[in-house]
Design goal:
Layout lengths: L9 E8 L2 E7 L4 E9 L2 E10 L1 H22 L9
Antiparallel strand pairs: 1-2, 2-3, 3-4
């Protein structure tokens, strides 16, 4: 029995520099990020990360605290953040 081919729901590229890009792809059960580097042989994957929905939810939940902390650091204020 032949397995059905699975394709990502969405995908794209984020340029970091001229020879350094991040390839992202959204799948039904995870999100994948690959850092791609261009060298004399062509493009090759330097790093690859997979995030499950549970991890993404945790990251999303913490973003407001991270943004507040970065803003306070920029203003040189010391703030203790609570969960």
């Amino acid at each position: 029995m032949k397995k059905e081919k699975v394709w990502p729901v969405a995908k794209g590229w984020i340029p970091i520099s001229e020879n350094n890009w991040v390839n992202w792809s959204l799948w039904d059960n995870n999100v994948q990020f690959q850092r791609r580097v261009k060298n004399e042989k062509g493009w090759e994957t330097a790093e690859s990360f997979h995030f499950s929905p549970k991890i993404l939810k945790e990251i999303w939940w913490r973003i407001p605290n991270w943004l507040t902390a970065m803003e306070c650091k920029r203003k040189k204020n010391l703030v203790v953040l609570s969960d």
